[in-house]
Amino acid sequence: MQKKIGDGLFFLLITILFASFKIPPSSPKQNTLRTIVIDAGHGGKDFGAAGKYSYEKNVALAIALKLQTVLQQAMPDVKIVMTRTTDVFDPPPVKANKANAAKGDLFICIHCNSVPKVRHSEVIGHKSETYYTGKGRKKKKHSRQVPIYRTWYTQNPVTGTETYIWAAHKNEDKELAMRENESLYIDSTQQVEDFDADSPEGRILSSLKTQQLFNRSANIALDVEDELEKVGRVVNGARQRQVGIWVLQATAMPSILVETGYISTPSDEDYLNSVNGQQEICECITKAVQKYKTSLETNSFRPVTDSSQ
Ligand SMILES: [Zn+2]
User: Do 239 and 292 reside in the same domain of the chain?
Assistant: First the structure.
């Protein structure tokens, strides 16, 4: 019974909200892709992961710059903002601020993955070991046989891509980013003046917007993985990461992080450093962005269930 009343109140509030703030849920101005922010992961003193001969920061920058070109050719009307175009280090908050200040409609982070080598060990013999029991007069000397191990490491053969969106339990952070940047998602200047993001109504609106951001991020994450699979890449899927993607939580826009391959695996490292590989990755991401733009313009995003909630 209580839940019903709660739901009723909630929807009443929402109705009042939309009525009083006059925020059309699908205003034509919002439903287009105007600005894309591309973030090359790491940079400068932050090298990221390492392969045999290359560093993640350089590969990420090369792919990000190429993505800028390929996207701009495919979508000449869209503005593209880069968080970095050279080998510099900016802390994640600085990058998030750049994206928010650019009023991005979509945030794409480019990274490479890596895994440690696989540890193996086997018994190659035994040796005698001395040990004691008791104290003082009762102290007794013993000996026992203990195994001798040989330990070695081999390449982890994992390859392929993952595309991440922020984890559900980080929704509060995303809502904070939304509240702090409320002017980014309320179009009319008059509405911005009237809007108190920290009011209960503001919080509900932030929360609704966050759900929408989740769904939009999930849609493009799934499409990026789909496009990469079509060209024959190993795809490990669209995922929600629990830790370590600060920029995804702090940007007030749909955001994805593409792990373009495993720099620690030689075949992927070669692919990530090759002209053809980089081009292929950028074309796949661009196709997914084009789908995203169409979905925005036709309001046709697929509902995606947040499995981690
Ligand atoms: Zn990285």
Answer: yes
Distance, CA of 210 to chain centre: 15
Domain tally for the chain? Answer: 2
308: in domain: no
Residue 267 shares a structural domain with residue 143 = no
Token readout for 274 is: 């090759």
Q: Are residues 200 and 283 in the same domain?
A: yes
Alpha helices, DSSP H only, in the chain? Answer: 2-21, 56-74, 92-101, 171-180, 182-185, 189-194, 200-230, 246-250, 266-273, 275-298
Instruction: Give the position of tokens 């720099």.
Output: 263
CA 111 to ligand 1 center in whole angstroms? 4
In terms of Cβ atoms closer than 10 Å to its own Cβ (0-12, 13-18, 19+), residue 109 is buried
Cα 270 to middle of ligand 1, angstroms: 17
How many angstroms does the Cα of residue 179 sit away from the middle of ligand 1?
27
**How far apart are the CA of 200 and the centre of ligand 1, in A?**
37
What pLDDT is attached to residue 20?
A: 45
Residue 115's region, left for phi above 0, alpha for psi from -120 to 50, else beta, is: beta
In angstroms, what is the span from residue 242 Cα to ligand 1's centroid?
A: 15
Q: Which residues pair with 39 in a beta bridge?
A: 109
Tokens of 84: 């970095």
Is 136 found in the same domain as 44?
no
Place of tokens 């391959």: 261
Residues of the chain with pLDDT under 50: 1-28, 182-195
pLDDT, position 58: 98
Q: Determine how many CB atoms are found less than 10 A away from the CB of residue 203.
A: 15
- Regarding whether 214 and 140 lie in a shared domain, the answer is no
pTM above 0.90, yes or no: no
Centre of ligand 1 to C-alpha 243, Å, is: 12
Question: What is the identity of the amino acid at 97?
Answer: N
**Length of the chain in terms of residues written:** 309
